[in-house]
Specification:
binds zinc ion, single chain, 2 domains, Quinone Oxidoreductase, Chain A, domain 1, alpha/beta, six-stranded parallel sheet, 335 residues, globular, Rossmann fold
Length: 335
């Protein structure tokens, strides 16, 4: 038996291959993929940069997945059944390093990740440990359920902040992640949720999902300050901007993934005088159940944020930047 998969064979080169099916490992579950998301991390991995871990080609990418269980390993103890509709947490922690044992598995020294260090969801089937599988409610579409991973990363980011109803928040960045933060924060009933972004075409959508205000910091002189500032772009300019928008006592969340070689300028006096908290958020520990619930109850109605749906064969062109359209978020239909 063979299965069809899109393989990153080397840096910046992908091809569809028929891969021989491996025997299913005892504690793993085989899932027929229905939808898989394409994310900024895939672009980093494609161009040879690290994601949540280093990728070593040949590898099948895809870490935002939904599908149906087709086979259970012999030693699987959870109550999963063949036919269950599921989503997958791609991050696999060792459980024995100092970080895992200190309740910080996201910092695991031996991290593995589906679609990063082991074959992922841009494939007909994926095998994952039973600990990484989550059932989804019937009301949740496969397309939305594939977004549980990015939403779970947002949940972790929000878990790191102390959020109060009277707070005001600024989301820096109008992309997919910025939109998820905006919608969830708006639904928490904060006093104000503002978004800074550059694309005028996104203003209507951002307002529809709950933004009280959208502004382009390059065009308007905006001097309001915020209790919470969430950076979702990952470049020097927006990171410095995010810190400058924090009011005294404010909390800044660095969520966007930057180039590891990039540095930013911050005034240490500002951190001191404003008593700023600046935090990083890395991946999604313990956040999948909340993410699934947020999708299921439409606290984040994620399908309207997905701008493109492609086939597996389109992916090499997308990652190589050969598609001219502006993609905010793309998913691959594997059905
Ligand atoms: Zn991702
Ligand atoms: Zn560990």
């Amino acid at each position: 038996m063979h299965l069809k998969a899109l393989v990153l064979t080397e840096k910046e080169h992908m091809e569809i291959r028929q891969i021989p099916e491996k025997p299913l490992r005892d504690h793993e579950i085989r899932v027929r993929i229905k939808y898989v998301g394409i994310c900024g991390t895939d672009k980093h991995l494609y161009s040879g940069q690290p994601g949540s871990a280093e990728a070593n080609p040949p590898i099948v990418l895809g870490h935002e997945m939904s599908g149906v269980i087709t086979e259970l390993g012999q030693a699987v103890k959870s109550d999963f059944k063949v036919g269950d509709r599921v989503t997958i947490d791609p991050n696999i922690y060792c459980g024995r390093c100092a970080y895992c044992q200190n309740n910080q598995p996201q910092l695991c020294e031996n991290m593995e990740a589906v679609g990063v260090t082991r074959d992922g969801g841009m494939s007909e089937y994926v095998d994952v440990p039973e600990t990484n599988i989550y059932k989804i409610p019937d009301s949740l579409s496969f397309k939305a359920a594939a977004m549980a991973e990015p939403v779970s990363c947002v949940v972790h980011g929000l878990d790191l902040l102390e959020i109060r109803p009277h707070h005001t928040a600024l989301v820096v960045g109008d992309g997919f992640i910025g939109q998820i933060f905006t919608e969830i924060l708006a639904n928490r009933g904060l006093k104000k949720v503002a978004v800074s972004g550059r694309n005028p075409k996104k203003v209507n959508l951002l307002k529809k999902i709950g933004a009280d205000e959208v502004f382009n910091p390059q065009k308007v002189n905006h001097d309001e300050k915020y209790d919470l500032v969430i950076e979702c772009v990952g470049v020097k300019m927006t990171q410095e901007l995010a810190i400058s928008f924090a009011r005294r006592g404010g909390q800044v969340l660095m969520f966007g993934v930057s180039n590891p070689a990039e540095t930013i300028q911050v005034s240490a006096y500002d951190i001191f005088f404003k008593e700023l908290t600046i935090k990083g958020a890395f991946i999604n520990p313990y956040a999948m159940p909340d993410a699934i619930q947020i999708l299921a109850n439409r606290t984040c109605d994620v399908e309207r944020l997905i701008t493109h749906e492609f086939k597996l064969t389109d992916v090499p062109d997308i990652l190589a930047g050969h598609i001219n359209e502006k993609i905010t978020k793309a998913v691959i239909n594997m059905e």
